[in-house]
Specification:
Blueprint: H1 7-28, H2 33-49, H3 51-70, H4 76-82, H5 86-100, E1 109-116, E2 119-127, E3 130-135, H6 139-152, E4 155-160, H7 165-181, E5 189-191, H8 196-202, E6 210-214, H9 217-225, E7 239-243, H10 249-261, E8 270-276, H11 280-293, E9 297-300, H12 302-307, E10 312-313, E11 326-332, H13 335-345, E12 350-354, H14 358-367, E13 372-375, E14 394-396, E15 404-406, E16 412-419, H15 425-429, E17 438-439
Parallel strand pairs: 3-4, 3-6, 4-5, 7-8, 7-12, 8-11, 9-10, 9-11, 12-13
Antiparallel strand pairs: 1-2, 1-17, 2-16, 14-15
C-alpha cells in the first residue's frame, strides 16, 4: 500500500502531513459557501464514478476481517459495520449531498455590539482548524466526516483501523482528486495508516485542534489518556428505555424492539429495559416473547427472574454495551428508581421513557443526565442524519463545546472582530469618551 511508511520515518511523515493540513485549513477558512458546495458535489460524483474500485477495496478488507473474526481479534458487530455494498455506498453519497444542502456554520455573525460610535464588536463563527479522527471499521465515517469538515471549513486527518485501511485509502484518494479539480489543496483531506501513527498524531497539539475518536471504549479511553489535544466523543453507549406505569403497552413493545433490534451493533441501540413494578407481571412476558421472536437473549435482575425464571442473571453487570442481540431487564419501583439507575449505570448517551403521563415524561427528560433524552421514541433516533444535521462526526457525551450528535455546529468556534476608527483605551480610561454597549 502507498500508505506504508517506515517506522523510522513515521513521526516525521505524520508531522509533515499535519503541517500541510494546517496550511490547507487556512485556505478552507476563506472559501465561500458556494465553493464548498461545489466541492461537495464533485466529491459525491467522484464517489459514484469510482464505485467499482471502492467496493473492490472493501471486499478485500472484509475478506481479511473475516479471518480476524475467526481468530477472535474482531467482533461480528465490527465486521457488519465494515461491509459496504452498492446501497450503503449510495447512502454515503446521499449523505455528502445532504451536507451540501445545509446552512454554512462558519462566517455567521452571532452577536453585534456597538461599543461606541465608530467602534463595533462582532462575534463571528469560524472553523476549528484541523480535526484528527480515529475510527474503527466504519467506511461511512470517512465520507461523513470529510463532508462535514469541508462544509465547516476544517481540514481533516483520518486514521481508520487496520480492518478498513484499503477502503479508507481508495475513498481518500477519490476525494483528494475531487478537491484538486476544484482548486482546493488536497491536504484538506489526509489519512495516516498503522497503529503507531495514532501516537504520533496525539502529540501534535500545536497543529491539531480537535481529536474525535469513534470506536470502542478502549479506543476512546486510550485517546483521552494520551493527548493534550481536546477530545470530543463518547466512551460507550449504554442506552436505556424506561417503560412507565402509564405506558401504552403496544407502543412500548414496538419501541423496545426497534431500539434493540433495528441495528444492535451501534452506540444508540438499547442495552437495558427498565420496567415499572406495577406493570411488570403483565408486560415482561409479552416483552420476552417479542424479543425472543427476534432472537434476543435477555439477562435480568432477581425480580424479573421471579416472573420469568428462564431469564439469565445479569450478575449486577448493568454498565454493559452488548452491541449484539442481548438485552438486560430490570424491574424498578418507580420513576425515582429508573432515573437513579440510568444516572448511575448509563453512559449519558441516549435514554428514553415510554409513557402517556406528560408530567412523568417532563420529569424524566429534565432529570436524566444524558445528551439525548426521548419521550415515546426509539433510542435509534439519536443520530446526526435523523436530527437533520446531514451527518455527524460522532456523538458526544461531554458537556463542553458540543453534546449529542455532533454535526456542523460542533465543528466551529468563534472569534471576536473589532472594527474601529482610531479609538484608544486611554480615551475611555480618562472618561473623555463613554462606552455605549448597545447590542443589536
Amino acid at each position: 500500500m502507498s500508505a506504508t511508511v517506515p517506522a523510522s520515518e513515521l513521526k516525521w511523515h505524520v508531522e509533515e502531513l499535519a503541517r500541510a493540513a494546517k496550511a490547507a485549513s487556512r485556505t478552507l477558512a476563506t472559501l465561500s459557501s458556494e465553493h464548498k458546495n461545489q466541492v461537495l458535489e464533485a466529491i459525491a460524483q467522484a464517489l459514484e464514478k469510482n464505485a467499482k474500485p471502492i467496493l473492490a477495496a472493501n471486499g478485500d478488507d472484509v475478506l481479511d476481517a473475516k479471518g480476524l473474526v475467526e481468530s477472535g481479534e474482531l467482533s461480528q458487530a465490527l465486521l457488519k459495520r465494515l461491509k459496504l455494498d452498492e446501497a450503503k455506498l449510495a447512502d454515503m453519497v446521499r449523505s455528502v449531498r445532504a451536507v451540501a444542502q445545509l446552512a454554512d456554520p462558519s462566517g455567521r455573525i452571532l452577536d453585534r455590539t456597538l461599543l461606541d460610535e465608530g467602534l463595533e464588536l462582532q462575534k463571528v463563527s469560524c472553523p476549528l482548524g484541523v480535526l484528527a479522527v480515529i475510527f474503527e471499521a466504519r467506511p461511512d465515517a470517512v465520507t461523513q466526516i470529510s463532508a462535514l469538515a469541508l462544509k465547516s471549513g476544517n481540514a481533516v486527518i483520518l486514521k481508520g483501523g487496520r480492518e478498513v485501511e484499503r477502503t479508507t485509502e481508495v475513498l481518500v484518494d477519490v476525494m483528494r482528486e475531487a478537491l484538486a479539480s476544484n482548486g482546493i489543496p488536497q491536504n484538506a483531506i489526509c489519512a495516516v495508516y498503522g497503529r503507531e501513527a495514532v501516537s504520533a498524531l496525539l502529540k501534535l497539539e500545536e497543529m491539531i485542534d480537535l481529536v474525535i475518536p469513534r470506536g470502542s471504549n478502549a479506543l476512546v479511553q486510550h485517546v483521552q489518556r494520551n493527548t493534550r489535544i481536546p477530545v470530543l466523543g463518547h466512551a460507550d453507549g449504554v442506552c436505556h428505555v424506561y417503560v412507565d406505569a402509564a405506558a401504552d403497552e403496544a407502543m412500548a413493545l414496538k419501541l423496545v424492539v426497534d431500539s434493540k433490534v433495528q441495528y444492535p451493533a451501534v452506540c444508540n441501540a438499547l442495552e437495558t429495559v427498565l420496567i415499572n413494578q406495577s406493570i411488570a407481571t403483565s408486560f415482561l412476558p409479552k416483552l420476552l416473547e417479542r424479543l425472543g421472536e427476534k432472537n434476543v437473549r435477555v439477562r435480568g435482575c432477581a425480580r424479573s427472574q421471579a416472573i420469568a425464571p428462564e431469564i439469565e442473571s445479569v450478575n449486577g453487570k448493568w454498565h454493559m454495551e452488548y452491541s449484539d442481540l442481548i438485552a438486560a431487564v430490570r424491574i424498578v419501583d418507580n420513576m425515582d428508581g429508573a432515573i437513579d439507575h440510568i444516572n448511575c449505570y448509563g453512559s449519558h448517551h441516549t435514554d428514553a421513557i415510554i409513557t402517556n403521563d406528560t408530567a412523568a415524561a417532563k420529569r424524566f427528560l429534565d432529570e436524566v443526565d444524558s445528551a439525548n433524552v426521548f419521550h415515546n421514541a426509539s433510542t435509534r433516533f439519536s443520530d446526526g442524519y435523523r436530527y437533520g444535521f446531514g451527518s455527524e462526526v460522532g456523538i458526544s457525551t461531554s458537556k463542553l463545546h458540543a453534546r449529542g450528535p455532533v454535526g456542523l455546529e460542533g465543528l466551529v468556534t468563534y472569534k471576536y472582530k473589532l472594527y474601529g476608527t482610531g479609538q484608544t483605551v486611554e480615551e475611555y480610561a480618562s472618561r473623555r469618551r463613554k462606552f455605549l454597549h448597545e447590542s443589536d
